[in-house]
Design a protein that fits this description.
By secondary structure, the protein is an alpha/beta fold. The protein contains eight helices and 13 strands. Pfam families: Aldo_ket_red.
Length: 284
């Protein structure tokens, strides 16, 4: 079965591809090549964010592909995220409008609250991780409920088809669930063999909210970002002896996830790798 046909039905009735291209840390020309290649290979979900500072480049590639007839807008699922510097009720609509302008689209398929924290608004709108006195310039708190109500308005206005969250724990999810008119359709979180998110998944399953995994193979290049702590002794998932053994058994590379199936026994072996290890610890 082609990767382009595998989809999941969300709790609002919309469907989302099971596999997508994450675009964090991509340089402009490399990103444009990656998006073109992904679309040629059958990917139909492109995930970006205001914080990635690459929405404009993605918009250029999408326009190019639409004009060339390689893909239609209706075939694609475009996901982007609310900026941390605009993570307050009064700024949600503005952040959305800026993303749509850069992507050159009238609406997106999914708009996510990127995280349960807000940074103070800098003078430069591209300063998405503002630093003050050597630390991230965080707001004292965030009005999660107010932000979510503004997210719901974006659906009403046709700016996005679905809304969700990212990097939210159970407590954050409960705050939204108690006031939501439109439920989040997904929670995009770090999820891989070292961080299986079992308890969070069990909670979300009760409300038909699937996890979307970022860093599913452990994000070996995350150290390229200055925002995250990378300890020298942090294990590399793709180099794990268990993965190496399975590579030999299935004659695949560590990162390959298509065109083969793992046995239940081997799935259990991978599940046992869970260390509760957060690879993305923000410097503060």
């Amino acid at each position: 079965m082609s990767v382009s046909t595998l989809r999941v039905t969300l709790n609002d009735g919309n469907t989302m591809p099971l596999f997508g291209l994450g675009t964090w840390l991509c340089k402009k020309e490399e990103l444009k090549t990656a998006v073109r290649t992904a679309l040629d290979c059958g990917y139909r979900l492109i995930d970006t964010a205001y914080n990635y500072l690459n929405e404009e480049a993605i918009g250029e590639v999408l326009e190019e592909c639409f004009k060339a007839g390689k893909v239609t807008r209706e075939e694609l699922f475009i996901s982007t995220k609310l900026a941390f510097i605009y993570n307050r009720p009064s700024d949600v609509a503005f952040s959305m409008s800026e993303s749509l302008k850069k992507l050159n689209l009238p609406c997106v398929d999914l708009y996510l609250v990127h995280g349960p924290m807000a940074y103070k608004k800098p003078d430069d709108p591209d300063d998405v991780f503002p630093i003050k006195d050597g630390r991230l310039d965080l707001e004292d708190g965030i009005d999660i409920e107010g932000v979510w109500r503004e997210m719901e308005k974006l659906v009403d206005e046709g700016k996005t088809k679905s809304i969700g969250v990212s990097n939210f724990n159970v407590a954050h999810m409960e705050r939204i669930r108690k006031i939501a008119r439109i439920m989040p359709v997904t929670n995009q979180v770090e999820c891989h063999a070292y961080r299986s998110q079992t308890k969070l998944e069990e909670y979300l399953h009760k409300f038909n909210i699937p996890i979307t995994a970022f860093a599913p193979i452990g994000s070996p290049d995350r150290g390229a970002s200055k925002m995250f702590v990378v300890e020298a002794d942090t294990p590399v998932l793709l180099n794990d002896p268990v993965i190496a053994e399975l590579v030999t058994t299935y004659n695949k590379t560590p990162a390959q996830v298509f065109d083969f199936q793992l046995s239940p026994e081997d799935m259990a072996v991978i599940a046992a790798l869970d260390k509760g290890l957060d690879l993305f610890t923000i410097k503060s």
